[in-house]
Design a protein that fits this description.
Layout (H helix, E strand, L loop, with lengths): L5 E4 L4 E5 L8 E5 L5 E4 L5 E5 L6 E9 L2 E2 L3 E8 L11 E4 L5 E4 L8 E5 L5 E4 L5 E5 L6 E9 L2 E2 L3 E8 L2
Parallel strand pairs: 1-8, 9-16
Antiparallel strand pairs: 2-5, 3-6, 4-5, 6-7, 6-8, 10-13, 11-14, 12-13, 14-15, 14-16
Length: 168
């Protein structure tokens, strides 16, 4: 039985892989992608590895005995990363108290959620968690709107743009 396919975050490099024992096998040989280090179990049915900074790849095992070697069985490994920072809209000049003001960003690869923050006195009325929000500026004074992109591996650095609020 091949090792199970696995997906993990790049900031959790220590992983384990195992296969079902093959009847008659006396040892096992494991292979891993370049940059991955086997830290224990090289000739057994289970290994520990330090994935380091290697990207996605395969972990494979071969069973051996005095009569030869089995075909290789492999697990696909997907290494997920924290999303990059979004590309924010340009700076904005708006009127005090403006309502239903819309902003959007392009989707960030690997991001599953977005967090927008606004200056005190402003309120996000729609779209929090998505690539587009609607803001009511209420009593806000000039400040920054910031966006982070996130997934199960963590959040990006914030990307911000300046909002200058003017009066008539």
């Amino acid at each position: 039985t091949p090792p199970a396919d696995v997906s993990f975050c790049s900031n959790t490099p220590l992983q384990s892989f195992s296969i079902t024992a093959v009847p008659g096998a006396s040892s096992y040989i494991w292979s891993v992608p370049p940059g991955v280090t086997i830290t224990g179990g090289q000739t057994t049915t289970s290994i520990n590895v330090n994935w380091g900074t290697a990207g996605s790849g395969q972990v494979c095992a071969i069973a051996n005995n005095d009569c030869g070697s089995s075909p290789s069985v492999c697990a696909n490994v997907t290494v997920n990363t924290t999303p990059a920072a979004p590309n924010p809209p340009g700076n904005a000049l708006i009127c005090a108290g403006l309502a239903n003001d819309n902003y959007s960003i392009a989707a960030v690869p690997n991001a599953t959620t977005y967090n927008w923050t606004v200056p005190a006195g402003a309120t996000i009325t729609a779209g929090q968690g998505t690539t587009a929000v609607t803001i009511d500026w209420g009593t806000a004074i000039s400040g920054q709107v910031c966006i982070t992109a996130g997934n199960s591996c963590g959040n990006s650095a914030p990307a911000c743009f300046n909002v200058t609020i003017g009066n008539i």
